[in-house]
Sequence to fold (423 residues):
Amino acid sequence: MDFELPPELVDYLAELDAFIEREIIPLEQADDNVRFFDHRREHARTDWDRGGLPRAEWEELLAEVRRRADAAGHLRYAFPAAHGGRDGTNLAMAVIREHLARRGLGLHCDLQNEHAIVGNNVGLLLVLEYGSPAQQADWVDGLAAGTRFFAFGITEPDHGSDATHMATSAVRDGTDWVLNGEKTWNTGVHIADADLIFARTAGNPGDAAGITAFLVPTNTPGFRVEEYLWTFNMPTDHAHITLTDVRVPETAVFGGEGRGLAVVQHFFNENRIRQAASSLGAAQYCIDRSVEYAKQRKPFGTSLSTHQGIQFPLVELHTQCEMLRALIHKTAWSMDRYGTFAVSEQVSMCNYWANRLCCEAADRAMQIHGGLGYSRHTPFEHIYRHHRRYRITEGTEEIQMRRIAGYLFGFMSQREPKGVRPE
Fold:
């Protein structure tokens, strides 16, 4: 078994670094754009008078970065070559995501809104995998360029992690479907052209089959944003929406009638391994900065780095990063070789442990940096607040552990879920 990264991937990381130094850092330093990353970041990013949504100036700056990254050939890296990409693998994306996050906060990568110069556009991959020819013709170009976007309407106020009990329903009415229900934590709806709504169309609560995905334009009559939920980490774009007699045509069905849950599971596996890699990179950043600070800081005339009380916690975190990195690389490589659903157990392992590790590393960095670490003049509180979210929103730690237990004790099997492919 060869643990060396492919030489072309190593070269690409250097190419990314050169692009960041040449184009992204100068943009970050221009026109006081650094306000979005220094101690003013939360205020600068948040439109407090518009429901806590991201400020327009912040989102416009991110859009400019995407345009530059696309022009340089980076934004679409993970996409098929036919759509302007480089056929990026899961392993390559995991390595890249960790690499960018390990550089710290910046316009090159800001995980608060999944922004990166190498796009993590799972929506495009889902359209290529499950979209009808008409949906692909409508969506692929805009998704690839980062100029169009659809949100994911999965979670409900009364049904969080258990999507099989969702109350949102869709019933046929002639050639149309009529949707009723509500969704919460519907991230990004404020800029979305459509919302991928998951609704029960057959079966009973608790059934895995009978859930259908619908691409619903956000301007459809009856689609209403009730509020944006303020969170531990601002700004917020997490909406609570309601659907009241929302009528869509048959062409809005995404992935086939009754096969929506398979789309969800595919999305989760693709996204979770990349998100785990980002959390690993952020954790390593916290460790790297803490080691650097401990070498420089000399209270009572002695370097902090000489004290075992400083060394040992960082040694444990650094060791966990190294072990997690090996598992992430192996899992991503296995996804490339054996398929998205072949390593669901390992994806859950990577995800819940990476998110927990990142929070622990950020907390330790705050402690080592003392009062400065607690302030917003260092990035650790921001990293903690953001990555604390992923211990819930990427499938709670408990759900991930339950999945692992299902495989461990034989209650689940690692195979493609029923309904992923047409019979």
